[in-house]
Amino acid sequence: MLLAVEKLTVSYDKALILNEISLKVEEGELVSLVGPNGAGKTTFLRAITGLVKWDQEVLKGTRYGDILISGAVYFKGERIDGLNAPHIVKKGLGHCPERRRPFSEMTVLENLKAGAHLQRDREKMKKNLETVYSLFPILKEREKQVSATLSGGEQQMLAIARAFMSEPQLLCIDEPSIGLAPRVKQDLFGRIKELKELGLTILLVEQDVNLSFSLSDRNYILSHGRIVAEGYSQELINDDTVRKSYLGL
Fold first, then answer.
1. SS3 state of residue 204
2. How many CB atoms lie within 10 A of CB 7?
3. Residues 6+ positions from 196 with CB-CB distance below 8 Å
């Protein structure tokens, strides 16, 4: 078991965002976490990668109120929920945030090198860069281009590639299809599939059920801060209640 989350609960001030979420990801899997806007998907990823802990420090004493988090997160058998985000990245848990967020004033190549800032082995970094360019050839073409000038799809590819450069053992990808045209989505998910085929373990958070279910080994459905169903794609699609109430199919 690479990742095990046990009864993770997060509240912002008096608003309960996540209510005792438990989830597991085995090595080599692509696991999807699906649900509508506001279900708590992004908060879940921020919590397991140490960013809610960062929120606690930054927002403490402000008008936003207190942020409370409880439960346990284990990565490779070690409890990590008390660690900050940089330490979690060093341990091999990567995070590709929603809405892409490249370093807009930097070039494509500078963004990719920033993703590899923890890598001290130059040869390994060079090899990872070659892998990125083989998966995302458009980034090779655009490597000297300022990232703010890229299209939405290209920026999303850059965000995933930048996260890959940190050499994660588990890569969390948050809403990669948001704001993209259907054809661009299909191309992007093809690249994510290739990352999985390279042996990368992936936790995919997504609203597009059809796309995520087409790639995933297992799925969790999040609604109003709770896991309401889990299982294999066809198993969930064949369940009338799950399909109509939570998947919108």
1. strand
2. 12
3. 30, 202, 215
* Cβ atoms 154, 143 nearer than 8 A: no
205 vs 208: CA distance, rounded Å: 9
CATH (domain of 181):
3.40.50.300
Q: Is residue 39 part of a domain?
A: yes
Residue 117 lies in a domain: no
Query: Over 55-82, what HEC string results?
Result: HHHHHCCCCCCCEEEEEEEEECCEECCC
Yes or no: say if 131 and 125 are a contact pair by the CB < 8 Å rule: no
- Domain around 94: 3-100+170-247
Strands 78-79 and 67-75: antiparallel
In a domain, 21, yes or no: yes
pTM score above 0.85: yes
Asked if 193 and 217 touch (Cβ cutoff 8 Å), the reply is no
Contact in structure between 112 and 125 (CB atoms under 8 Å): no
What mean pLDDT, rounded, does the chain reach? 89
Residue 209 lies in a domain: yes
Burial class (CB in 10 A: 0-12, 13-18, 19+), 61: exposed
Q: What tens digit of pLDDT does each residue of 74-116 get?
A: 999 999 998 988 899 999 999 998 876 778 889 999 999 988 8
**Count of domains for the chain:** 1
Contact 174, 124 (CB under 8 A): no
Q: Are 78 and 91 in contact (CB under 8 A)?
A: yes
Altogether, the residues listed in the chain come to a count of: 249
The CA-to-CA distance between both ends of the chain, in Å, stands at 31
Q: What is the pLDDT of residues 38-83, one digit of tens each?
A: 889 999 999 999 988 766 666 666 665 678 899 999 999 999 998 9
